[in-house]
Write a structure and sequence with these properties.
Elements (H helix, E strand, L loop, with lengths): L1 H20 L8 E6 L5 E4 L6 E4 L6 E5 L4 E5 L3 E8 L2 E9 L6 E4 L5 E5 L4 E6 L5 E6 L4 E6 L5 E6 L10 E5 L4 E6 L6 E4 L5 E5 L4 E6 L7 E4 L5 E6 L5 E6 L4 E5 L5 E5 L13 E6 L5 E6 L3 E6 L6
Antiparallel strand pairs: 1-26, 2-3, 4-5, 5-6, 6-7, 8-9, 9-10, 10-11, 12-13, 13-14, 14-15, 16-17, 17-18, 18-19, 20-21, 21-22, 22-23, 24-25, 25-26
Length: 310
C-alpha cells in the first residue's frame, strides 16, 4: 500500500511538472472589422497608432509615408502624389507619360519614391522636385518593391523571367547605385523589412519565405510555411515574428528566423476567383499589439496581437 501511494504521488508530481512547463496558449482575438470598396488599403500612423483607411482610387499600385503624410498612386500613364496642404492632402500629378508602374515604394521619410514596371525597369525620383535620381534594369517584371527603414537599401521582387533563368530577389544599396546581392529563382509577390533593418523577408509563389540578413553574404534561410502562394508579409516590431498572408486567405504567424508556427488566422470566407491577390496588405502597428489585413474584396480585419509581447 505504501509503495502504491508513493507511486501515485510521484505520478501527480510528474504530471504537474509537465503541465507547468507547457507553453501557455496564445490568444489573438478579432477586435475590429470594416467593409469598404474592393482594393482599398490601410496603414497605421506611427506614434499615436490610429488605423487609417486608404482609398485605392483605381490605382495600379499605392505607396505611403505615414509620418510626413505622403501618398503616391500609379496609373497607366502617370503617377500622382498627395502632400499636406494646410489641413488637407492635395493630390497632384507627379510624373507623366510613363508606362504603368505596377509596384511603388516610398522611403519612410517621404523623400524618395521608387516605381517598377513589367519590363524590368526601376526608377527612383526625388519627391520634393520630381527629378529622376536613379534608373535600374532588372531581368524580369517587377512585382514588388520595399525600402529598408533607413532608406539606404531597396529590395526588388520579380516574376520568374521568361527564357534564361535569373535571380528574382535583388538588393540594391542606393548610394552606390549597384546591386549588393541577388538570389532565388521563383516569383516573389511580397517583401518586408524588419523595423531595425536587420532582416529582409521575401514571400514566394510556392508558399515559402526566404529570410535574409541585410548586409550579409550568407545564403538566405528558406522557411516552408504553406503550399499556398504568399501575397503579403509583415515583420513584428520585435523582429521575432513574421506574419504571412497566403492565396488561401489564411494569415500565418511564425517565429523568426526559425519559422516555427505560432498561430493561423482562418478566413471568414473562402477565396473569391474574382480577386486573385486575395489579401492585398498586412501590417503590425508600431507597438506590435495589432495586426491588420486588407482583403482584396474590401474587407479589413484587425486582431489583438499583444500576446506576442508577453
Amino acid at each position: 500500500m505504501r509503495n502504491s501511494s508513493a507511486t501515485l504521488v510521484l505520478l501527480v508530481l510528474v504530471l504537474g511538472a509537465c503541465s507547468c512547463s507547457r507553453a501557455p496558449k496564445r490568444d489573438f482575438p478579432l477586435v475590429q472589422k470594416y467593409t469598404t470598396q474592393a482594393g482599398d488599403l490601410f496603414y497605421f500612423r506611427p506614434h499615436d497608432g490610429p488605423f487609417v483607411l486608404l482609398e485605392r482610387r483605381k490605382a495600379l499600385a499605392v505607396a505611403v509615408a505615414p509620418e510626413p503624410d505622403i501618398e503616391a498612386y500609379s496609373y497607366d500613364d502617370r503617377i500622382t502624389v498627395s502632400r499636406p496642404q494646410g489641413n488637407t492632402l492635395q493630390n497632384t500629378t507627379f510624373v507623366e507619360k510613363i508606362g504603368p508602374q505596377q509596384a511603388l515604394a516610398i522611403t519612410a521619410d517621404g523623400r524618395t519614391l521608387a516605381g517598377g514596371n513589367a519590363n524590368g525597369a526601376v526608377s527612383l525620383w526625388e519627391i520634393a522636385t520630381g527629378n529622376l535620381t536613379l534608373h535600374l534594369d532588372v531581368p524580369g517584371p517587377v512585382l514588388c518593391l520595399a525600402f529598408s527603414p533607413d532608406g539606404n537599401w531597396l529590395a526588388i521582387g520579380l516574376a520568374k523571367p521568361a527564357g534564361e533563368p535569373a535571380d528574382t530577389v535583388w538588393l540594391y544599396e542606393i548610394h552606390t547605385n549597384g546591386p549588393h546581392r541577388s538570389f532565388n529563382r521563383t516569383a516573389v509577390p511580397a517583401l518586408a523589412w524588419s523595423t531595425d533593418g536587420r532582416w529582409l523577408a521575401a514571400g514566394l509563389v510556392d508558399g515559402s519565405v526566404l529570410v535574409s540578413e541585410a548586409g550579409s553574404d550568407h545564403e538566405p534561410r528558406r522557411i516552408a510555411l504553406s503550399t499556398s502562394p504568399v501575397t503579403a508579409l509583415a515583420i513584428h516590431p520585435s523582429g521575432l515574428f513574421l506574419a504571412s498572408a497566403h492565396a488561401d486567405k489564411r494569415v500565418l504567424l511564425s517565429k523568426l528566423p526559425s519559422g516555427e508556427p505560432v498561430y493561423i488566422f482562418e478566413p471568414a470566407l473562402p477565396p473569391n476567383p474574382l480577386f486573385p491577390r486575395v489579401i492585398e496588405h498586412i501590417a503590425f502597428d508600431e507597438s506590435g499589439v495589432r495586426l491588420a489585413a486588407a482583403y482584396a474584396e474590401g474587407d479589413f480585419r484587425i486582431w489583438d496581437t499583444s500576446a506576442l509581447s508577453r
